[in-house]
Amino acid sequence: MRKLEERAGQSLLTRSKAGVSPTEAGARLLVHARRILALSDEAFRDLHGETLAGELRLAVTDYFRPGDLTQLLARLAQGHPRVRLHVSILKSDELRAAYARGDFDVALAMHIAGVSTPPPGSPAVLRRESLAWLGAAGMRVVRGEPVRRLVLPDTCSLHQFTVALLRRRHVPYVLAHVASGVAGLQSALAAGLGVACLNESAIGEGVARLAAPHGLPALPRVAFQFLPGRRGETEFVARAREMLAVQLV
């Protein structure tokens, strides 16, 4: 590990009495390592005539890389032409309920650190991102005045979290705009209609982090993770989840 850190030019692990955990750089390197291993495994299977083939129902949270997801799925389709993919973009709570009903084979959800806990048996975290308070480029929030909030419907876990957070910190706000999805939220932000909380990969054009001091509370990170596989799921679904973990990073 020391040689690897020397080659990387930075620390990859944090060591403490509580144990060992990856640094931010270590977490990024781990993503690449898993991708390399998965690609190696897929190449081996392809050489042995075990090409992935079948029909897959995939649900993805609205917050996951909204600007890149279509290109990622197109690349996936090119690399695995025999996989018939049916994709639905949902709010995380809707996604979890639909997956529990058996409506989807694979589901990618967002978990807010310290708020929602991944179910036991969940696969490794696909991606971690910071949350941020955002507005139109150049927007400033006047401390003490009610914040004009832009949100998704109140079934959204991020909406619920930020409302509870602002109330705990006694930050006044008004709901200025309720969008049906992240794309609508991005448009409302860029138009200067107010302030919203989004994850890093969902920050669109014409939108920027609010400049300090803005008087809004600090935000945690989020993790994107597949929900655990079901007991008795087919080998195809299990392999497809592994393949998606490589393609969607």
Secondary structure elements and pairings:
Blueprint: H1 2-8, E1 13-16, E2 19-22, H2 24-47, E3 54-61, H3 69-79, E4 83-90, H4 92-101, E5 106-112, E6 127-136, E7 147-151, H5 157-168, E8 173-178, H6 182-190, E9 196-199, E10 207-209, E11 221-226, H7 235-247
Parallel strand pairs: 3-4, 3-5, 7-8
Antiparallel strand pairs: 1-2, 5-11, 6-9, 6-10, 6-11
Give a quick summary of the entry.
The chain is built from 7 helices and 11 strands. With about 250 residues, the protein is an alpha/beta fold. Strand 7, helix 5 and strand 8 form a beta-alpha-beta unit.
Tally the helices. Answer: 7
What does the main sheet amount to? 7 strands, mixed
Percent of sequence in beta strands: 25-35%
Global structural class: alpha/beta
Identify the CATH homologous superfamily of the domain at 131-219: Periplasmic binding protein-like II
Give the CATH topology of the domain at 131-219.
D-Maltodextrin-Binding Protein, domain 2
Q: What integer value in Å does the Rg equal?
A: 20 Å
Low-confidence stretches: none
What is the CATH architecture descriptor of the domain at 131-219? 3-Layer(aba) Sandwich
Write down the oligomeric state.
single chain
**First-to-last CA distance:** 24 Å
Instruction: Estimate the mean pLDDT confidence.
Output: 87
- Secondary structure tally: strands: 11
Principal-axis shape:
globular
Measured as a percent range, the helix fraction is 25-40%
